Structures are given as C-alpha cells and as structure tokens.
Amino acid sequence: MGITTTPAATLRDLQIPLVFGVTGHRDLEHENLEKLEVSVRGKLEYFRRKYAHTPFILLSPLAEGADRLVARVALEPQIGARLIVPLPMRKDFYEEDFTSPGSLLEFLGLLDRADQSFVLPQGPEAQIPKKGAARDAQYRAVGEFIVRHCQNLIALWDGTGARGEGGTGEIVALQTEGIPAPNANTLELPEAFPAIWVVTPHRKIETPKVPEGGALFDVVDMYPAAFRSDKKEAEDYYGRIFGRVDDFNKNVASRREALRGDIEESKSYLMSTARQRDLSSDERLALERYGMADALAIRFQKWTKRTQYALHWFVFFTFFFFVFFAHPPSDSIETWVKPWIWLLPSGALLSLAGSLILVNRRLQFDINYQDFRAVAEGLRVAFFWRLAGVKDYVPEHYLRSQRSELDWIRTGLRGWQIHPTDDQQQPGRLDDLKLILKHWVRDQRDYFRRKREQNEDKARHNQWVIRSLITFAVAMGVILFVSALLDHKPSIRIELLLVETLLAAGALWHNCNKLMAYEQHAKQYGRMYDLFAYASKRISDAVSKERVKEAQELLRELGKQALAENGDWVLIHRERPIELLPP
Fold it and tell me: For residue 508, what pLDDT is reported?
C-alpha cells in the first residue's frame, strides 16, 4: 500500500511556481508609498490574470522599504503569493538594522506570515558587524540568491548605477545580464531574466532616471540584452515560457485526482514504498512532484502513440478506398456499386485524420508528453542529488543548449529549488548512497538495457514488415506485368489494387517507424546503459570503501550526463511531430 501524501503536499506545492524577487531602496518617502503600491499591484494582478493556474512565490529579505512594500502587496488575497524570506544573516544580527520599534514589529509581523524563512550561509566571521564589508557581502549574497532563483525581479529603483556592494543597480544588472559563472574561463553564456522596474524616487537623488517618454511610478519591463532591445520578441518569448508553465499547472490541477494511482506507481519506481517512509518531508515532497510529472508524461505518451497509430490507419484506409474508386476490382462490382461511392469513406477518413491533427494541436499530446517527461527526468536527478547531499543545481545543467520553447522546463525547475542547502554540499550518509545506488543507478542501468533491447527488436520487426510489404508489391508488379503481356485483362485491376495498397502500407509503415525513432532510441538507450553500467561499478566501489565524497562527485557527474542525454531525447522527438504528412 502506498504512503499517503504528506500534509505539505497541497495542490500548489505540486504546481510549478512563478517566482518573483524584490530589490529596491530602503528609504522610500512616505508620500510615495501608495503610488508605488498601485504600480506593483497592477503588475502582479496582470500576471495573476494571465497565469491563473500558477502559484506565485515572492522572495523578499524583508528589509525596510521596497522589500516590505512588495511583500505586503503580494500577500493580498487577489494576488495570493506565498512569501519566502531568505535572511542575509542570523535573525538577531539582522534585526540590528531595524532601529525603530515600528520597523522591527513590521518585520516580525511579515516574517510570521512567511511560508518559509532561512539564513543564508555566512562568511568566516561569526559576528556580522553593523557596518562594513562583511555585512555588505551578505546583502549582496542575498540579492544574488534571489536572482538565482526568481524568474521576475521587481525593482523599486531610481534607475541610477549601483551605489556600493549589493545595491539595487547591481542586483538589477545580475538579473538582466546573468550571474557570472564561478569559472572565469567558461564560454557558456550566463542565464538572464526580466526585471520589472518601478520608477521610484530616491531622497538622495534629486533627479532620478526616468525612461524616455515615461514618468515616476511607471512600470518598465527590462529584458536581457540577448533580445537586442526587441521588446516584442522578448514579450512573446516570456509569454510562451510562462504560458507553458501555466499549462503544466492546469494539467496538474485537472488530472491529479484521476492519476492518483499512477502517481503512487511512478513514485514506487523511484523509491520503494517501504523506503519512502524514511524520507524527510522535503524529500517526500520532491518525490510527490516527480510522481505527478511522471504520471502526466505517461498519460500523454499513451495518447500520443494512439494518435500516431490512428492517424496512420486513417490515412491508409483513405488511400485504400481511393484506389477502389480509381481501379474497381471488376466490372461486376461496378454494376451495383458506382465508383464515386468509394470517395465517401475515403473523404470521411481523410476528414477524421485532419480532425485528429487539429485535436492534437489543441491538446498537444506529443508536446506535453515530451515536455512533461523532461520535467520528470529533471526532478529525478534533483531528488537523488538532494538525497545524496550533492552540491548542484539542476537548472544550470538542463537544456541549456536549446534556447527555445523548452526553456520553460529549466525556468520552472528554478522555482522548486529555493533553499540554500540545494546549492551546498551536504555530508553524505553511506545508507543513503547505498539506497541511491540501488534505486537510481542500478535500476536505471537495467531499465536502459531493457529499453535498448525492446527498441532493437521493434526496429528489426518493422524493417522486416516494410521489406515484406515492398517485396510483395514488387512480386505483384511482376505478376501484373506478365498478365499484361498475356493480355489477362480481367485480373489486372485486382493485381494493380494489391500493388498500390501494399506500396501505401509499406510507405506508411516506414513513416510510422521513422516517427517512433526506434533505431535512434536503441542507440541512445545503449549509450545510457553503458554510462549507468560504468557508473554502477565506480560508485559501488566508492561506497564499499566508504569514500563518500568520491561517490557524491560520481553521482553529480552521472546526473549531469543524464540531464544532457534527456535533452537530446527531447530534440529527437521535437523533430518528429504528429503531422498528416511526413516531417
């Protein structure tokens, strides 16, 4: 019997969140607060209307000024965001910044309303001085943490350059230009996201920067430089990205109850039911998310295959009846069935095939199958990395080379890894590593071996069927030729009907085989089997000798390889959409 969902695993916990961060000035003028709230509220309500099925999260350290203003608005019922508070330093040190009793009470009140709060890892100094480089570094760290995990950064800002480490200008630049990689010699472009700039006056700046043709308190969308100031392209891109996130969440909401048994089965593939009881609440939630994504992927996979097969059968019989129209088998049939009658079922089946294409375009069976499978595979790696205490962040390694509509997957996964421990190497436990070796490395090794063999068998079978159909068609063609030479006219039409039908069947079978990509999959599964088999030996050796850090690093590398391979899998399927004509 499967374990029940933990109380924390509510519907919105299983949906991909849209994460907003906040940065901005602390010393906001009291007379400007209402206008700023109106601007922020209007933008958040716009997102709420557009992405109605998506939960919102706000990352705010709750410093005075902008952090708290945006938090108050985001917590309003019509927005309904959850508040997560990353504290730049220990709470008692942080409270030293809030000198007035009212400020401290406001901080504590908002902190009580937060779903979660945690302290970022601190520097070498146990005590953070009230002023100085150590404190500035922690403020920069919390700003960088927010940028690293949010998809939209709300900046209450005067538009001027950065003033000091961790200032608003610097954090906005990190959001729109990307956080530089730790390795200065890497050539991989940093990933950047939009900033929502609310033009905000600053008491220290007499003439704040205002966009051309704009005014104070305007909301300006700032996009990464990769769009080369093409605002329309940027809007379309992020609209598609966030729209796909909302589509996923809509499917979670509408199908969760119907898929409950499938979810439990998917979870059991990843971790035995008995072992699930030993997981922490965070690990159970991560497993529940995987089960949801995997169950959705399997459901859409079934619909995709049924649609592919139905489409090919419809096309085959469309052609079959058309051949009867063009070449009636005998004169006797023509006496009681007029040739044009055969056009009716032919046209009806062609219409059904076209309707099936339209249904797929509307419900996106194939796209959802591919995308939700990619989400599940990302969650699989994230789950086992978390269990192993591996320091890494799945979105940084997943689908980075496909800057397209697939970016929504990587973007969405950012919202499910909002905790500093996800970025920190944790002490590994031998029992957990043995569990991972069994339930991930060896299970996946055996899975890929089975799938390779299955796809090789299917590819061989399909090639045999295609060759047989073509061979029979050629044989019928020879018979037709000989019959024509012998002037056996009565049999010619039957043989011609057989030749054309066999050729059509062979062509459609070949096209279906190409779309299912059995040969490519067999090669890919073979590569993954070799990878997991080798990893199994290496990790087993490290675990048996209690070399925990070595095992963690091997699991980290295995996860990166698995993510890269799944990205290639998505590309294979993207090139083979469900269409009436071959791609």
Answer: 85
Report the Cα 107 to chain-centroid distance in Å.
35
342-356 confidence digits (pLDDT tens)? 788 888 988 998 899
Residues 6+ apart with CB under 8 A from 559: 381, 384, 385, 390, 392, 394, 397
* Domain coordinates in residue numbering, the chain: 15-248, 267-390+425-574
- Residue 468, Cβ density class (10 Å: 0-12 exposed, 13-18 middle, ≥19 buried): middle
Terminal-to-terminal C-alpha distance of the chain: 45
Among the four given CATH numbers 3.90.79.10, 3.40.50.450, 3.40.50.1010, 3.40.1190.20, the one describing domain 15-248: 3.40.50.450
**Average pLDDT over the chain, rounded to whole?**
85
Query: In the structure encoding, which two tokens stand for residue 360, read together?
Result: 């797929």
At 22, phi and psi to the nearest 5? Answer: -140, 140
High-pLDDT (> 90) share of the chain, %: 48
Q: What is the pLDDT of residues 545-581, one digit of tens each?
A: 999 999 999 999 999 999 888 888 887 777 777 776 5
Q: Look up residue 299 and give its two tokens.
A: 């459901």
Strand 152-157, strand 18-24: pairing: parallel
